[in-house]
Write a structure and sequence with these properties.
Elements lengths: L9 E5 L3 E5 L10 H8 L3 E5 L18 H14 L6 E5 L1 H11 L5 E5 L7 H17 L4 H8 L2 H11 L23 H11 L11 E6 L9 H8 L4 E5 L6 H4 L1 H23 L1
Parallel strand pairs: 2-3, 2-4, 4-5, 5-6, 6-7
Antiparallel strand pairs: 1-3
Pfam families: Abhydrolase_6
Organism: Nocardiopsis rhodophaea
GO molecular function: hydrolase activity; ligase activity
Length: 274
């Protein structure tokens, strides 16, 4: 049973070859706002809310809701919009979706920012522990959970987990979204599948950039080496000073890497035609 792609909320602007932006678990399309202006100068840009996040509703409980089902949904979403092999960009969960579509031949290029699926065993165990903790936290009274996430300690934990520089005063109000951690919520439903996911494709037949923040505290930067062993032709980029959501830390650097990857795909296509 397929997810309904007509209910996916998205923003579309700019002109040129299309770039589709895919956010991470628990995030939304607004995560990409810091880079969209730069991308729109040269490309048509589509930022969407994955099912269950932002303004896109989650699939019904009887439908599959895991990484493969999200891959299928994004593929059909692109088909519905008439996007033929767009450039795909994803962060974390979105990075895995982009890489899976790249492996399926559905992308002109892939830029994956700290993608899931390449954790060494200790980090994989940690991800599973976090998923289990989310399921337990879902039964904590909402008022208690919100008080904890918005406490000084809770905000400090969010900054340390999500930002390259936890001391940046601009992020002093950053907090985890307590409303997402409720029994049966999309986050709680999807988190165990994200924790258990491993990227297994042996070939990704398009230009690939694997970019990782050197201050990523959710997914260790060592995952980049594992990604390169799986995708040897990928270009590896270290995003200095960036955490798990590099678009928030250094948007210009992230936009530059996305544009560079798309340019590599364009140049390869021109050589193939010549």
């Amino acid at each position: 049973m397929f997810m309904d792609t007509t209910r996916i909320v998205y923003e579309r602007g700019g002109s040129g070859t299309p770039v589709v932006l895919l956010h991470g678990l628990g995030h939304r399309r607004q995560a990409w706002y810091p880079v969209m202006a730069d991308l729109r100068e040269r490309h048509e840009v589509i930022a969407l809310d994955l099912p269950g996040f932002g303004d896109s509703p989650a699939p019904d409980v009887e439908r599959a809701y895991d990484v493969p089902s999200l891959v299928d949904t994004v593929r059909r979403f692109c088909d519905d919009l008439g996007l033929d092999r767009p450039h795909l960009v994803g962060n974390s969960l979105g990075g895995a979706v982009a890489l899976e579509l790249g492996a399926a031949g559905a992308a002109s290029s892939v830029t994956a920012l700290s993608p899931i699926g390449f954790n060494p065993p200790p980090a994989g165990a940690g991800a599973r522990l976090l998923a289990g903790a989310a399921q337990v936290a879902a039964f904590v009274p909402p008022s208690v959970l919100r008080a904890a996430t918005h406490s000084p300690a809770g905000r400090a934990l969010a900054r340390r987990a999500l930002r390259g520089d936890p001391s940046d005063p601009a992020d002093r109000h950053l907090a985890f979204d307590a409303s997402a951690i409720t029994a049966g919520s999309p986050y709680v439903r999807l988190a165990p599948h994200v924790a258990a996911y491993t990227f297994t494709a042996s070939v990704v037949p398009c230009p690939v950039t694997i970019a990782w923040g050197d201050r990523d505290r959710l997914l260790p930067p060592s995952g980049a080496r594992r990604a390169l062993r799986r995708i040897p032709h990928a270009r590896q980029v270290t995003l200095l000073g960036c955490g798990h959501i590099p678009m928030s830390d250094h948007p210009r650097a992230v936009a530059a890497e996305i544009l560079r990857t798309a340019d590599i795909a364009r140049d390869r296509g021109r050589r193939a035609v010549a």
